[in-house]
Amino acid sequence: MRLSKLTAPKSAFHDYPGDEDGARFEITLLTPKQEREISSKAQKVVAREGGGEMVFDTTLAGSLRASMCLTGCESLYLSPGSDKEEKFTGTLKRKLLDEVPGFEAWVLECYGKLREQHEAEQEAERKNLAA
Q1: What pTM was estimated for this model as a whole?
Q2: Which of 50, 74, 86, 111 gives a 20 to 30 Å CA spacing to 121?
């Protein structure tokens, strides 16, 4: 089995819909370790009568996943008419995720599509190796 191909990180650039400057964002699949980290952070104990109950905060998990999988950008200009392309920083990422309506949902949608594509590729690779 060629583990390097099966376990290699997968990322892809996605065009942001409707952006006049052609902004593109890089989405990278998370590692199992990153997914476990998200799961542990999103689990909370909620006090109930008679004891506590463990619940999973899906909103928090989605926010963490969007922040972790958004790994780059191209052709991003924040000021209208500006010719200065923005550098991708943690601050810029937080600003986009927190202040641009629908951006986090779009990132998560792109992530889901990339994960599905990667899983299909992995399955095809496994079938080829078994043949």
Answers
A1: 0.81
A2: 74
